[in-house]
Amino acid sequence: MKSATATLHFELEKLAPAGRVGVIALATDFNIERDLNALYPSDVQSFTSRVRNYNPLTIENLRKMEPSIAVCADTILPGTELDVMIYACTSGTVAIGSERITQLIHLSCPKVAVTNPVTAALAAFSKFQAKRISVLTPYTEVVNQDVAAFFESQGIEVLSIAGFGFEDDTAMTFISPMDIKHAAIEACDPEADLLFISCTALRTSAVIESIEAELDKPVVSSNQVLVWHSLQLMNYPSAIKGFGALLEHYLETPDNFLRSSL
User: Of 188, 201, 50, 76, whose CA–CA distance to 138 is shortest?
Assistant: First the structure.
């Protein structure tokens, strides 16, 4: 047998040259990768690991993910520099807390920027100067009460919140985007500054623009705000069309973003 070393004729290429995003997704989330692949520009790439979660979806069960978050973060391209790490669960962030999630991720990835749907949503509310919101979720009324209470604790007035009443995280992805659209229009209070559609498992991205057109006000969703905030954190300034006003009009140059964040 002959053995030889193959010759490289070109320099090694850098994949995802504009940004690499680590994603900690729920083990039962059918939707997150598909949404992120559609939303991120072609020169940004996300890399997913999954954390074990438990049904039914309750605040107590959501908190059971906490011990596994650091280990999950450590499995995403170890030894490779990431630009941003995402914890991709809205209700889980409410249950565990944004600061605690960042602490856990930094145990494995101490230098990486971290975001989650709640932190990203609050940043988006600020960008739209929204103080009064409506919320649509797939959750039960009990979980919705905790979600609303969290936003109220951050100085955001929740005028209305509606949920589909699902306890099974897997089944949430099976909700039709058209049902999301119809429920969103019904759920939004006319006095709300914007509508927030919670949950990374919901297939909301495809209908954000049409909901905005019906309501004539901004609509933000968990996956959309995750993409927007992570792109801001990596200083990606180009607009993204087709997924709502946030990505089309509020991706800013690094200097402008820094000034507006002060």
Answer: 201
Q: Which residues contact 125 (CB under 8 A, 6 or more apart)?
A: 131, 133, 156, 193, 194, 196, 220
How many CB atoms lie under 10 A from the CB of residue 66?
16
* Separation between Cα atoms, residue 25 and residue 79, nearest integer Å: 20
pLDDT in tens, 51-83: 999 999 999 999 999 999 999 999 999 999 999
Q: How far apart are CA 36 and CA 204, in angstroms?
A: 12
Separation of alpha carbons 82 and 70, rounded Å: 15
* pLDDT tens-digit readout, 153-174: 999 999 999 999 999 989 999 9
The residues with which 134 forms a beta bridge, in sequence order, are 160, 195
> Against a cut of 0.90, is the pTM above it?
yes
Q: How far apart are CA 254 and CA 87, in angstroms?
A: 23
Question: Could you please report the per-residue DSSP string of 48-101?
Answer: EEEE---SS--HHHHHTTGGGHHHHHHTSSTTS--SEEEEE-HHHHHHH-HHHH
Write down the residue that tokens 């991706």 correspond to: 251
Contact by Cβ (8 Å): 18, 44: yes
Domains and CATH numbers, the chain: 19-116+224-236 (3.40.50.12500), 119-221 (3.40.50.1860)
Structure tokens at 88: 């991709």
Tokens (6 digits) for 78: 């170890």
CA distance 90 to 220: 13
The tokens of 230 are what?
A: 């992570």
**Distances, alpha carbon 262 to alpha carbons 125, 126, 255, 257, 259, in Å:** 15, 12, 11, 9, 6
